[in-house]
């Protein structure tokens, strides 16, 4: 009979426990699963303690910091305005940033409310009135902090908000959204249209009037939407050109039931009258 050291037995038992937790995807002892079973806390991902020195830590490389120190300070009104606009954009990106833990805990329909309502985005849930807050207002409509199956998102209104590609990453596997209104959105571009057409396959109505950054190529992803019935391109400069009109014609050839507003098609001469005059 031989003796076994206690340390060896302890190490072996620990290794077996770790192995079982790795092979078992739904181990009840895992912190990931315990987090999903608890109500989501709005501040849990932003709870990093900030000190005064944190203000100077912007994640810059030494060469970037040296360049900033060597650049003369410019206090012209135009420079201050551009600096402030960049700060506002960074803040907006931080607010609407996709949170995977929040999405897994609450589901996409409710997670979108937490991410986009502070930006002034309007949301319509099934059986409930429109929910919308003014931009910069502290009076933000409340959405649940736990997963609830009866909160089903049906329509979204981005009009006049600083919605960006990062905010649209919150749209994951939505199965009931039929209307999206995005009038005069300064940051809405072709990439935004692409992600909407990838995640909102039930879309029927799309209004992007006044969006200046959408090009004719940005309409190509609309071919993924079998139920699309109407799109509004009013006051979109790219669709006042020959290429834009041609893209709309091709899109309607692909989807004959699609109605496109805001595009002026060229008049086709009457061939019969031309032959009669000749």
UniProtKB/TrEMBL annotation:
It comes from the Eukaryota. InterPro entries: LRR_dom_sf. This is Distal membrane-arm assembly complex protein 2. It comes from Thrips palmi (Melon thrips).
